[in-house]
Design a protein that fits this description.
two-stranded antiparallel sheet, 216 residues, five-stranded mixed β-sheet, elongated, single chain, alpha/beta
Length: 216
Amino acid sequence: MPTALYVRVSTEEQNLERQLDSTHDYAENDLGQPLSNLDVYRDKSTGTDTARSGYKELMQAVEAGEVDHVVVHEISRLARSLQDLERTVSRVTDNGAAVHFVRDGLSFGDGKERPMHRLQMQMLGAFAEWQARVKQMNTKEGIAARQQEDGYHHGRPPLGFEKDEGQLIEGSNYDRVCAVLDMVQKGELSKRKAAGELNTSRKTITRALDRSELYI
C-alpha cells in the first residue's frame, strides 16, 4: 500500500521543498519505499486546528486502510495542539498504519515504539501548542497597545487588519500576513516577493515590519 507524505505550509514558498525532501528521503531510505509508492498530501494553512482539506483526505485514506505509513517532517506540521496530535496519532495507529516524525526522530505504530517516545511526543506537542497560544496572546496585547494611539482610529488599518466600529480586528488574511512577514525577517523572502504574495506594495511591507508587535 502507498506511503503517505503530509506537508503543511503557510505560503507557496515556505519550507515546502525542505519538507518534501525530508519526507521523501525518509520514506525511501528508512522505509524502503520506491518513489512510485508515495502519495503526497498538502495543506496551505496556518490554523491551530485540523480543519484542513489535505489533512482530511489523508485521514480518509488512513481509515479506508489505504495507507501503511504516514511520514511528516515534524510534529508541528501535523498538529498545533496536543489534543489534536494525540487524536491524530491514535487514528493512524488504530487503523493499522504507522506515523513517523522525521525531524523529531519519533515513530508510532511500527512495533518499535518505546514508552519514552510517547512522553517525548506529548512534550513536543504541548510546546507547539504553547507557542501558538503565546503568539495569539502577544498579538492581542500588541493590538490593544496600538489601539490607544489616535492614528489607528483614522485612515487605513495596518496590513492584515480590518476595522470594526473604529476598533482593529484581525482580517481574513492575518495568518498569511504573519507567515510572509516572518519569512522576510528570516531572509527567506524578499520584500518584493512578499509584496507580490500579499498583493500590496514594498512600502506597506516595510511599514508592517516596523510594527512587528502586531504580527508576533
